[in-house]
Amino acid sequence: xxxxxxxxxxxxxxxxxxxxxxxxxxxxxxxxxxxxxxxxxxxxxxxxxxxxxxxxxxxxxxxxxxxxxxxxxx
Length: 74
Ligand SMILES: [Zn+2]
Known about the structure:
Blueprint: E1 11-21, E2 26-37, E3 43-44, H1 47-63, E4 67-71
Parallel strand pairs: 2-4
Antiparallel strand pairs: 1-2, 2-3
């Protein structure tokens, strides 16, 4: 089991909500897989997931909606 570098707690697989402010609006992505520290709550998203989030944000940027809420599709 991986340890949290911040507090030494246990990292566990879970889900988080990712949100980003694009100035004209906000994109919220639900059910993003992440490793979450059971002690301090710090979250880590792997590079594959981060890449997908980047794509989601890029397409949301093009629609220019004020609020976009979607679920992460693995
Ligand atoms: Zn921690």
